[in-house]
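hey can u check if this looks right to u? its 201 residues, i copy pasted from the old doc so theres a chance i mangled smth
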Amino acid sequence: MWNLNGGSFSLSLTESAQRGEEICNNYAPKGNEELLMGYGFCIMDNPCDQVAISLSEPPSQVYEVLKQSFPASFTTPEWNRNEGTFFLRGRGHYTGGYTHDLPCLRGLPPEFFVAILELVRLSFSKRTGEEPPSDQELVCSSIDSVRFRLHQNRNDIAAWIPTLPDGPQNIRQVYSKIYRDGQLRILEEIIEELSEYLDAF
C-alpha cells in the first residue's frame, strides 16, 4: 500500500516478503520509458515496453475522420498532444500487439495508421491531373510513409551510439542502454514487418 505523508510516500506490504524477493505493485504494466523517467530504472526484455511516437496537428478534415472512426480515442474538439501520442509495440509485447486486417501493422496503433492513411489520402487528393490511387496503392503508400518515419526515429537514436563509451560505466548508463536497445529493437522489428509486406508488391 502507498502511504502519503507530508509530500513524501512510503510503501507498506500487506503480505510478508524476503529480502531480494520481487514485490509486485497494483499499477498497470509499465514500459521502460515510463520506468526510466518515473523511477530511474529499466527492465531488460520488458514485455510491456513500447515506443512513443507523436504526430503534429493534422489538417482539420483528417482530425474529423479520426474522431468519427475512433470516438473513444479522440474526444476533444481540437487536436491535443495526448491524443497525438501513440505507442508502438514490438513482437514480445505482452498484448501481442494491435488488431489489424494486415498482420504487418501489428505493432502500430490503429489510430496512428489511420491518421497516416488519411494524411496520404489528402496528399493524393491535392495532386491535379492524376487518377486517385487504388485502395492498395493508398495502403502501400501509407505503410511506406510509416516505415520512412520509423527509419528516421531509429536513425536518430542510433546516431548517438558511436559517441558513447564501449560499455556502460555506471548504473545510469546501464539503464540508458537497456532503454535505448529496447527502443531500437521495437523500431527495427516493425520496420522489418512493414518492409516484408512492401517487398511482396
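The longest strand covers residues 50-54.
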